What we know:
The protein has eleven helices and 13 strands. It is about 35% helix and about 20% strand. It has two domains: about 10-155 and about 295-315, Rossmann fold (3-Layer(aba) Sandwich), CATH 3.40.50; about 160-290 and about 325-350, Rossmann fold (3-Layer(aba) Sandwich), CATH 3.40.50. The strands form two sheets. The chain has a seven-stranded mixed beta sheet with strand order 1-3-2-4-5-6-12, with helices on both faces. Strands 8-7-9-10-11-13 form a six-stranded mixed beta sheet, with helices on both faces. By secondary structure, the protein is α/β, with parallel strands linked by helices.
Amino acid sequence: MLQNRFGKLAATVLTGSMLMGAAACGGNDDAATSAKPSDGASSAPAAAGAKVGLAYDIGGRGDQSFNDAAAAGLDKAKTELGLAETKEIEADSGETEAAKEERLRLLASGGYNPIVAIGFAYSGSLKKVAAEFPDIKFAIVDDAAATGPNISNLLFAEHEGSFLVGAAAALKSKKNHVGFVGGVQVPLIQKFEAGFAAGAKAVKSDVKVDVKYLTQPPDFGGFNDPAKGKTAAEGMFDAGADVVYHAAGGSGSGVFEAAKAAKGLAIGVDSDQAKTAAADLQSVIMTSMIKKVDVAVFDFLKSFSGGGVKSGTTIYDLKAGGVDYSTTGGQVDDIKTKLDEYKQKIISGEITVPEKTS
Length: 358
């Protein structure tokens, strides 16, 4: 796991052809284009020779989850969109809003355009800096509050994907007892919890769902503390749970370690973690809730390259293919038909997944 490094820069210069291809985490262009962007400004220049800046959330590239999904989208764009240069910078868990602002200004004043911020923690700082640089296009993942004529908000229906893995957890649980570990108790992560619990209870109304958050805001260290993730999951396995889902970024590796020690099962998040986690832990990951941040990042950069980037909200939901569950390892093959039935009911509107716990 990468350690947090305040203001660390990693510049990469690449050229390539402007072609389209498959997204890194199982996404596809059909999924991306079926998302529904709102109307907004559309005056971005072509990106041939563009300099792209990307500001990671806590944990950065190498977290095997949320940030790595964003990195996959950037890597695809490097190869396929002919970017002249990219600069990647990483957040620190204890930094101030002023530090976040300075990170984004560093990119903007350095001529990077567009700039993508990964995570809601950049909301206030991005809104401020975007106003200072009106000719630069900005995008932010997981935040709708930062608005402006040059800001694109890339959002996901995490609760819908979490419903599916919640159903999988209940179907696979032999003890009728599952758990959820959240990194930080904020509304975004509570969407994961709400969907997971709803999915589990749709299968078995009396299933027990344990819930533990690693930190409370303004402490966002819960997204990069494997030791805390392991302790939380150990408590759940010791209490009788046999499947634990995490939405805790880099802390998820600790959840996987606890699952292995307890001979239980775990559910990954954001990326297909049966592929990205440490090799000795992959077998305990029965499925992952895939959140296709790679598709959203690539989609935004591709739109910029065509001069058609729009401000406002784009939602990547289950219908658009923006969230899903993974099948790597074959551990959910026997319940796939049931999970796909739930998926179709959500897409059709027969099932409405809650975004908040009751």
